[in-house]
Design brief:
alpha+beta; Thiol Ester Dehydrase, Chain A; about 40% strand; elongated; YbgC/YbaW family acyl-CoA thioester hydrolase; HotDog_dom_sf; hydrolase activity; 4-hydroxybenzoyl-CoA_TE; YbgC/YbaW
Length: about 130
């Protein structure tokens, strides 16, 4: 399953170089993952009910093309691979001209809420990766 989130670049996201600050791309990716979880019917409450949380442990991002104020962006998110407790999303950000602006591999781990240690990813999540 692939999710899509449409956003518009706001003036507060622009840096001194008059383009989107690099850290804002990480926020865009996070918003895209949250959209994926919602579409997969796995919001925070669903994980909480299972006694787990998800924790981002690695983001490998490549910046391809600058984004500017007013750009209409599309944030894509899709499952890439899954291990015992870790899983990876492939994410891409495109502008209104369908130019790839950034792509990333984002690794998260499922963590037990009580022990704060990694825990096997639940079948409710695994189904999207298999």
């Amino acid at each position: 399953m692939e999710s899509t989130l449409d956003i518009i670049v706001r003036s507060t996201e622009i840096d001194v170089n008059k383009h989107v600050n690099n850290a804002k791309y990480l926020e865009y990716l996070e918003w895209g993952r949250e959209e994926w979880y919602e579409q997969a019917n796995l919001p925070y409450d669903a994980f909480s009910d299972m006694g787990i949380q998800t924790v981002t442990v690695n983001i490998h991002i490549s910046y391809k093309h600058e984004c500017r104020q007013g750009d209409k962006l599309r944030v894509l998110c899709r499952p890439e691979r899954i291990g015992r407790s870790s899983y990876v999303f492939k994410q891409e950000i495109y502008n209104q001209e369908d130019v790839l602006c950034a792509d990333a591999l984002v690794t998260s781990v499922t963590m037990d809420m009580v022990t704060r240690k990694s825990r096997e990813a639940p079948k409710e999540l695994r189904v999207f990766f298999e």
